């Protein structure tokens, strides 16, 4: 499949009172047309900032994209004039946010918010846009679309609002949807509804999807490829099966051992990652995971390990990535 | 101190409860919140039935999980047990004493025995108090460790139990991370040597790696202090990991109750089945093979719940009688209770 998006050495920083926060520190990845990629990591690892940088939605000041290239359909998004980036935002690339209440305008009807976008990006007339808005709401499973279009966001439940967000995201026939924790605020049965809906619609329409989440279960169910981030850097990347069944970075191993699992024996003791995530203003030259890593050696303090290939498309950033497996086997 | 003596005189004698005996009974608990209209002359126009006829018991030493989605009444049930809400009807019997019959003074010694850990470690700690004061105040109020030197020793001890260095007693909550704050919340729950702790979404706000640390801590403390937990949570994987028995609530009703292994291996109520099928497991190969039963529709408003079985509008098994009659909890296997007539 052809490349849709290529992120190269992206660096996004924030100036704060405590110093410069390197929220995203040199990440590179790609997304092919129509595929679903998950970016996982814990709070503050830079997964959201990395995705917001694609659409240049970083508030400046205090934030700034200081380095890197973001190639979308052959053009570097970071060099486009504002008028061009506005066409991409909500047009070819759209976003679904975590909190649907704050991402919809509370004083405008759902219908107005949907049609406004389509008239702007697709150049539809009011009548055409109205017709398509009804279609879209039906598509995302909202009953009585004609009546619902005249309602305001507060008249919708959390799950229904997220459906509206998906309709909005799909309205201008995007090539890529970035979903930032799309179901974190929702109950588990509603989460399942929304994720199934997103998967079916993106597959049917051939839209690529970046899901940003901390939920390893959601990633296992919905993503084809996985990117694991820690402290602003990508530490491992591969297909979901590679990363889950044969992890090659100590942090990925740590995450997988930390989650309580419904599908495994109950008496199992969790193996947490010791310590706390690092302070992003005080990162040194070495591997940022080393204070919490039980495989760390002197070399890890000297420089950050490069992302190197393991097998086919899987890559990991660890000097000892080839020894971990042997070590884990002998331990169990 | 003199006040303390009066309180203990008024308090009913407490039975000594051993492992495996019933510690807490919740009988036909109901909590209705009035919905009012008007500003000056408020009148009730309806009731939100947050908890509607819930009965269960907890044995000494076990961990009972209480699961369900937002608004199902699991937190209100916990608050009623804590006597933070007075139930509309029903009884809560702790160590053989019916809490409904006690006034606030007589409740005081019982409050020492029942403690709570809240979800959000950011809002449940007073930002203007140092950790040492947060832990010391309840001890002072209840007259446990009245001597301040002894109290400080105890505070240091509690912090260490919860995996924090004793110098944290001089810190303010904002100087700590979320995981550390939750450890303080746990230490606070322990400071009056309770028998029973209600964990209300105690690990939900934490990141995966920190969550695992806190889950292990809760397990260790359960062993160390012989604790009984009521673990209220929406995350079924965590509940599966921590709980001996699990109760599932939907729209104020208890729909299923069973031993943890039994419930997860053999869920019977259609809602429990859908709930379990909705939880993704972190294994792409297993996920590829799993049947995903997606529940249609949303939870109806508790202001106007459906007649009969509250789950019938979303249920695939529903028959005519489900729309009229409330299904009773039936014991379909030893210890496995289900409120559904069609299974």
CATH fold assignment of chain B: Rossmann fold
Q: Counting H and I runs of at least 4 residues, what is the number of helices of chain B?
A: 11
> Could you state the order of secondary-structure elements of chain B as H and E?
HEEEHEEHEHHHEHEHEEHHHEE
Give the biggest beta sheet of chain A: 8 strands, mixed
Low-pLDDT sequence parts of chain A = none
Task: Report the sheet-strand fraction of chain B.
Answer: 15-25%
Which strand order spans the largest sheet of chain A, edge to edge or round the barrel? 6-7-8-3-9-10-12-11
Multimeric status of the protein: heterodimer
Instruction: Kindly report the spatial arrangement of strands forming the biggest sheet of chain B.
Output: 6-7-8-3-9-10-12-11
Q: Helix fraction of chain B?
A: 25-40%
The CA-CA distance between the termini of chain A, in Å, is 40 Å
Number of strands of chain A: 12
Euclidean distance between termini CA atoms of chain B: 58 Å
What's the number of extended β-strand segments of chain B? Answer: 12
């Amino acid at each position: 499949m052809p490349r849709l998006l290529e992120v190269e050495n992206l660096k996004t920083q924030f100036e704060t009172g405590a110093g410069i926060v390197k929220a995203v520190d040199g990440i590179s990845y790609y997304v092919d047309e129509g595929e679903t990629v998950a970016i996982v990591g814990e709070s503050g690892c830079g997964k959201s900032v990395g995705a917001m940088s694609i659409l240049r939605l970083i508030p400046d000041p205090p934030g700034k994209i200081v380095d890197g290239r973001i190639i979308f359909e052959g053009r570097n998004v970071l060099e486009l004039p504002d008028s061009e980036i506005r066409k991409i935002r909500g047009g070819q690339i759209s976003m679904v946010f975590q909190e649907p209440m704050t991402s919809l305008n509370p004083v405008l009807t759902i219908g107005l918010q949907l049609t406004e976008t389509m008239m702007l990006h697709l150049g539809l007339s009011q009548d055409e846009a109205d017709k398509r808005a009804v279609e879209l709401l039906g598509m995302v499973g909202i009953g009585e679309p004609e009546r619902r279009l005249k309602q305001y966001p507060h008249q919708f439940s959390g799950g229904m609002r997220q459906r509206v967000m998906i309709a909005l995201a799909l309205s201008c026939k995007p090539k890529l949807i970035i979903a930032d924790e799309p179901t974190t605020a929702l109950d588990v049965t509603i989460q399942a509804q929304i994720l199934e809906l997103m998967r079916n619609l993106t597959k049917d329409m051939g839209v690529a999807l970046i899901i940003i989440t901390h939920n390893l279960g959601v990633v296992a169910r919905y993503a084809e490829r996985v990117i694991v981030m820690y402290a602003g850097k990508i530490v491992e990347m591969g297909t979901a099966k590679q990363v889950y069944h044969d992890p090659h970075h100590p942090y990925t191993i740590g995450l997988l051992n930390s989650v309580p699992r419904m599908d495994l024996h109950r008496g199992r003791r969790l193996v947490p990652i010791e310590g706390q995530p690092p302070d992003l203003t005080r990162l040194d030259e070495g591997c940022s995971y080393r204070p919490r890593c039980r495989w760390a050696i002197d070399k890890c303090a000297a420089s950050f390990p490069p992302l190197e290939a393991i097998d086919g498309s899987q890559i990991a950033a660890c000097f000892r990535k080839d020894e971990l497996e042997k070590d884990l086997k002998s331990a169990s | 101190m003199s006040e303390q003596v009066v309180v203990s005189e008024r308090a009913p004698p407490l039975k000594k409860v051993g492992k495996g005996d019933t510690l807490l009974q919740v009988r036909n608990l109901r909590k209705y919140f009035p919905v009012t209209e008007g500003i000056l002359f408020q009148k009730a126009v309806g009731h939100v039935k947050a908890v509607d006829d819930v009965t269960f018991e907890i044995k000494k030493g076990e961990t009972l999980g209480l699961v369900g989605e937002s608004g199902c009444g699991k937190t209100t049930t916990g608050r009623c047990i804590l006597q933070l809400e007075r139930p509309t009807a029903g009884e809560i019997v702790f160590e053989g004493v019916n809490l409904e019959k006690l006034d606030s003074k007589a409740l005081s010694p019982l409050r020492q025995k029942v403690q709570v850990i809240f979800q959000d470690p950011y809002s449940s700690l007073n930002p203007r108090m140092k950790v040492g004061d947060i832990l010391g105040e309840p001890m002072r109020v209840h007259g446990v460790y009245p001597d301040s030197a002894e109290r400080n020793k105890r505070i240091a001890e509690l912090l260490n139990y919860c995996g924090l260095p004793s110098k944290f007693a001089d810190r303010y909550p904002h100087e700590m991370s979320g995981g550390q704050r939750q450890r303080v919340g746990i230490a606070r729950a322990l400071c009056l040597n309770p028998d029973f702790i209600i964990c209300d979404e105690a690990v939900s706000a934490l990141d995966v790696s920190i969550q695992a640390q806190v889950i292990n801590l809760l397990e260790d403390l359960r062993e160390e202090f012989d604790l009984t937990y009521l673990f209220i949570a929406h995350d079924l994987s965590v509940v599966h990991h921590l709980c001996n028995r699990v109760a599932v609530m939907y729209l104020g009703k208890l729909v299923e109750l069973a031993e943890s292994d039994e419930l997860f291996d053999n869920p019977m109520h259609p809602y429990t089945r859908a709930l379990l099928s909705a939880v993704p497991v972190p294994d792409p190969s297993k996920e590829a093979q799993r049947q995903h039963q997606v529940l249609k529709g949303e939870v109806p408003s508790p202001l106007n719940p459906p007649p009969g079985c509250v789950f019938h509008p979303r249920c695939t098994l529903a028959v005519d009688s489900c729309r009229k009659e409330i299904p009773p909890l039936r014991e379909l296997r030893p210890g496995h209770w289900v409120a559904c007539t069609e299974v």
